[in-house]
Structures
1.
Amino acid sequence: MSLAVVVFSGGQDSTTCLAWARSRFDEVHALTFDYGQRHRAELAAARRIAKRAGVRHVVVNLHGFGQVSASALTRRNVKVRADGGLGGLPSTFTPGRNLVFLTVAASYAVSHGAADLVTGVCQTDYSGYPDCRRSTIDAVEQAIKLGNGLDAFRIHTPLMDLTKAETVRLAVELGALPLLAESHTCYQGARPACGTCPACVLRRRGFFEAGVPDPIAYRLADAASN
Amino acid sequence: MSLAVVVFSGGQDSTTCLAWARSRFDEVHALTFDYGQRHRAELAAARRIAKRAGVRHVVVNLHGFGQVSASALTRRNVKVRADGGLGGLPSTFTPGRNLVFLTVAASYAVSHGAADLVTGVCQTDYSGYPDCRRSTIDAVEQAIKLGNGLDAFRIHTPLMDLTKAETVRLAVELGALPLLAESHTCYQGARPACGTCPACVLRRRGFFEAGVPDPIAYRLADAASN
């Protein structure tokens, strides 16, 4: 009986990872972090998707994390923009966010006897988010093994080297489009999605390049035609 | 202007680290994690000590972490004992607790422009707590650097190779005994301290071997005579 824990935001990538994990493990638990993020619509999406997927869903209150870190995703007075954040990183970069999510998820996994963690991070995002690189994930995996005295613990990153279009095709192969219809991506937290923020633009381009219609609705007429 | 962030529980070791950091950095912030731990007396001690030391004190709500992890420190129905926890580890071992504390503290540090983190972990505790080893700390440090795109970030572990007696002597050198008079160690959360739990016994032995009277009160007459 193998159990995998998925770091699950309710967005496109983690929803694809949830489907991926379901296809490979006997049991899957989805962990969603509530850290006071501005896009609350993600939490609602996560609940809908987990219910439809029939997996155990745990929402972990990490409001204290939102309180210590500074980024446009947790502070309403910081504007979302492609640059201008800390150290020239995007203002949507929350310092070390993935490190915190992965170490908390690992504690959950170890407590439940699971040695497999799945996260949707992807090197395509690397320019903006250094904690999405496989080298960072390897270091976290090593820290988790050493810190828990475990010989075997694996952080799976099935989307690491995929383009957004390839991720869309993987979702189609996994039969995950009905789940993606409930997913949330927009950084503005809008539903229908704004279609113009960096996250929406990336998602739209991926579906467009994969030649697959995006099952979610967009606010803009031109975006909705994708 | 150098700023260091101390992972600060309000116990003997982190109080000594607070004094150590104050002697080496221009400014010190103390971060205390409230994860629903059974020994709530630690939080009160942390507040008293930070106030007396005159450093900025931030209590970070990590109740969500207590919720995902299983240990005698966060669950009232788990008995504190020296063995019998997960994988033969002590029942007081919270899987990956230090990994979570260090990654959250690193987010705070990076958000505040600090490149120095101080933690009181110590290899003396290694038999029970694999996340107290320097090799684990090195892996976490590497993950923090890679995950934040930083060349320089240091996790200081001034107590790593010290015996409890040497830690007591260091505290004396740093003039930290008045702070230690407010510190809390007892796993039972008792004040006066129980004097008989593993944490109390370790603390009492350290002061005894250092030839320094412990400035806190113990419940047991024979312990109080130390």
2.
Amino acid sequence: MRLATLLGPDLKALQADPEALRDAFREFHPEDVAELLDDLPEKDVAELLKALPTEMAADFLERLPVEKQHDIVELLEDRDAVELLTEMDPDDRADFIEELEDHEQKALLEKLGEADPELVEETQELLRYDPYTAGGLMTTEYVGLAPETKVWEAIEEVRRHAREGEAETVYYIYVVGYGDKLLGVVSLRDLILSEASQAIADIMTEKVVKVESTTEQEEVARVIARYDLPVIPVVDEHEVLVGVVTVDDVVDVVIEEATEDAQRMGGMVPLDESYFATGFFELVWKRGIWLVVLFFGQFLTATVMESNEAALSTMVELAIFIPLIISTGGNAGSQSSTLIIRALSIGEASPRDWYRILGREVLMGVALGVMVAGIGFARAYFAGDRVEPLELGLTVGVSIVAVVITATVVGSMVPLLMRRVGLDPAVSSTPFIASLVDVLGLLVYFAVARSIVGAFVG
Amino acid sequence: MRLATLLGPDLKALQADPEALRDAFREFHPEDVAELLDDLPEKDVAELLKALPTEMAADFLERLPVEKQHDIVELLEDRDAVELLTEMDPDDRADFIEELEDHEQKALLEKLGEADPELVEETQELLRYDPYTAGGLMTTEYVGLAPETKVWEAIEEVRRHAREGEAETVYYIYVVGYGDKLLGVVSLRDLILSEASQAIADIMTEKVVKVESTTEQEEVARVIARYDLPVIPVVDEHEVLVGVVTVDDVVDVVIEEATEDAQRMGGMVPLDESYFATGFFELVWKRGIWLVVLFFGQFLTATVMESNEAALSTMVELAIFIPLIISTGGNAGSQSSTLIIRALSIGEASPRDWYRILGREVLMGVALGVMVAGIGFARAYFAGDRVEPLELGLTVGVSIVAVVITATVVGSMVPLLMRRVGLDPAVSSTPFIASLVDVLGLLVYFAVARSIVGAFVG
């Protein structure tokens, strides 16, 4: 907890002595410093960053949430802001600019251009990509060398790059031909194992696992996980190397995607930020919109109930088992949809597998339905009063089997359908499936009741 | 699809010519070969692996599911099996042995011991750790050097290690003192940037981000993601370096954990394998057990309904809105539990935050409840028949507000309680919360109905 202490009363004293401040911060991981800065008022952070060497300040700044970055940079003078942005990693800088209003973007890029025109070009290049694709995730900091480069020259080049660049991107050297076309890859490990005078073309691996700049980030994560890669090259449609994505960014993507999926599956619009960081009214909106949509959907349950009012008033016992039956359907449907949504999201299943899944889920519905129906029959048999025990028991038992089969089929097929028509399967959330099954379940229940009670009466 | 063709009719011909077979396979990434082998019968895979150089065969074998590995190795002669296991990565070998029966473990370790006693020691070391901890994830393949080692010696050592070892673990060199105590870390990047004659102690970073061998795998993933590390050292309780975990294994852990969480939240026992790889009866069991438990829980809804039979038979309109009201509660509860379970699982919230969360969720319940209740009031107002429209409308509206508040409170507090008592919060699945809210919702509904209708009648 020394870091927390450091930012307490000593802070003002340290600010007067930039060297001591820098040395104090150097003791800690930038990620830990950033977490602490995130809790300080923007004004104090701006003061602090100004007192630090620009490179160090940029290292902290780029780890803060983008919103906070904006608020802080606004408090700086133009000259300081431009210096700081120049020192940021290219992908973080692009993220910073991406989130600004159009006119702010233009003004900032102009100011950056006065300082370093090349940097603006690089940034505009990155801004062209959708942030949720490989292009949006990648950085342009990598080592790309011509095939005739000698091993010793390559090591020199790595050394030069490593002095400034990020650590992780110097372990793979990309061999590029005319117009930066990707020809192969050499690891630093290969380099230090080879003769100094060999050309890198002779030791490179030509089968390079790569992604296109338009590849979606989930797919990038899948490829990186599948091939256990620390870094993956990104090419355009002409096989030209445009950047690299590192695995640490992918870990963040996987965690983010899992959270978004969970929230969609929980029946709400996914949050952009964490639970506590999301404003109350934004949360009301993102939950309320789905709650209202589902509520209107549920109107159908009331309609089905109304059209069976006569049956209900003559046999009130029928009403007693309604929550039990429709909820059991909802639970079975929720299991199916969860399984299929996850299988889709990790790439195990695709809409083409629908018949295999359908067959399996119908059988699953029969097995689960029979299992639960036995218990339901017994419960209903001993509840009969105005209705005959056997009639009520059978109505409940048969309904459960039918409702559970309906639920497993709906729960498994709807996510596949969503994916097929290009929607996110996780939108077919547990509440959505449960609502659908509620309506279908009531229809099934009343149909079964009518035919069984009718049969006995007849 | 050339790989698929390769494994077709040409396979028999290639088996006769091991050299051609080896060259053919070398064209592809081992991960792709493994996927194809996974679809072949065990007997054919065993034949193939025997024809390949042991190192290559081990590289394919360790990428198959452990069950399949067992089936294949059983078909090999002892001598071949031992050779193959010797070539496997230490962590994969430990996983292979971990899953065997006790007596099989003992027999195999004995046979391995005849070939290489040191290997058995290393494996037994790894077997000592819980597979879901840092110790279970780690590999013992890393470079650890004494602090007085010169930079040029260290590079030589890395070179020696890289000739055999895995690529990713040679980029970080751990500086260890007496008894392998972890003193610092040097990256290969630091090495190539430093003077050849410097001691590594002079260039090492002493603040090493590390985990303990007993740290749970979710926590390892969190630390690696937070600090963007490609590899993290694992120490025992005396700060002795015992292994390293690489980020690619962590990506797999994160994906696995997200799937397990999703399945738990979908109301079932998480699967050990993927959807298609899980046997039908195992799936029936893992889904059925929860379905039955929840079904018994739902009995309470029938009981509540029975005890209000009189009210229901005099005012059958009351029954009409039951599915609508309890499902809306279920949906709101599902949103809350999803948000809190995710916040717990990414480390954003902890049970200590309960009062902050409670306050927020009560207000959220009021806001969401009022929003939906307005619509519900209108729907019920125009459905009245034997009951007065206003009475029915108010009963439905007020119930919805009360049920939604109950739902947000239950949905947010139950996961916190689960974590507090040491259970996985994801066990408080959407179906579980929905079932709980069903029962509470009915109690609320009938209580509200009685007091409102009573008030009007009185």
